[in-house]
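Design request, tokens follow.
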């Protein structure tokens, strides 16, 4: 599989929607994740990321303009022990709660499907990182309609053990802009992770997201040996 340049992937796609990146830094020392949201409607663009515990939550930038919170207000990132969960919806809570009751990532997502926002039927994309005792592995999932048919849900999980330094995977909700929006297809895209500096990586991502459509970005680097992390949040509205 060809290793892609993340800046190129982002800059050439005006509307990837929401996206999750997970991988390992170039020096091999950090587990890396990023999550971004974009929006076309005023309701979708009226959001910011805020810290909540060890994770983050979306909230309305201007509460007076919030019209429908059902699919836009949620906790994209939560931490359960040595596991960090990153998703594009309230399935973060489903994964957290069911894994806390000894179910697996896949079992938890069996209780969910794509978003009920026809005709797009936006895929639910999810990632989980497990960092413990100097070891790191992760998995990604996508739940999507069958070619836009809401009666069928296609479920895909991709697991990555001991990921290579300087490599990551990128999954996003839409292949491109459109009406209806075309769902992501195939395996999460292989990307190079050349940055060891969290600020440089966050800047790279933010500057290459479409200026009109980008809303918020979250980036976290986790030390694989110690589990300590540092995070960055970038909001268009601040």
């Amino acid at each position: 599989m060809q290793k892609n340049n993340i800046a190129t992937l982002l800059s050439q796609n005006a509307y990837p929607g929401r996206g999750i990146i997970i991988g390992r830094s170039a020096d091999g020392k950090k587990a890396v994740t990023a999550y971004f949201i974009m929006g076309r409607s005023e309701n979708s663009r009226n959001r910011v990321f805020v810290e909540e515990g060890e994770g983050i939550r979306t909230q309305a930038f201007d509460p007076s303009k919030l019209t429908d919170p059902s699919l836009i207000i949620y906790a994209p990132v939560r931490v359960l022990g040595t596991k960090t969960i990153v998703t594009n919806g309230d399935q973060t809570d489903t994964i957290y709660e069911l894994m806390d009751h000894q179910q697996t990532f896949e079992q938890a997502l069996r209780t969910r499907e794509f978003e009920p926002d026809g005709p797009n039927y936006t895929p639910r994309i999810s990632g989980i990182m497990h960092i413990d005792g100097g070891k790191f592995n992760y998995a990604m999932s996508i739940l999507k309609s069958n070619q836009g048919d809401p009666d069928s849900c296609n479920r895909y999980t991709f697991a990555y053990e001991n990921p290579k330094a300087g490599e990551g995977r990128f999954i996003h909700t839409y292949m491109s802009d459109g009406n209806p929006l075309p769902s992501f297809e195939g395996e999460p895209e292989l990307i190079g992770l050349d940055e060891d500096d969290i600020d440089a990586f966050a800047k790279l991502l933010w500057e290459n997201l479409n200026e009109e459509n980008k809303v918020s970005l979250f980036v976290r680097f986790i030390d694989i040996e110690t589990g300590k992390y540092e995070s960055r949040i970038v909001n268009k509205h601040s």
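Comment from the thread starter after seeing the answer: thanks! The longest strand covers residues 149-161.
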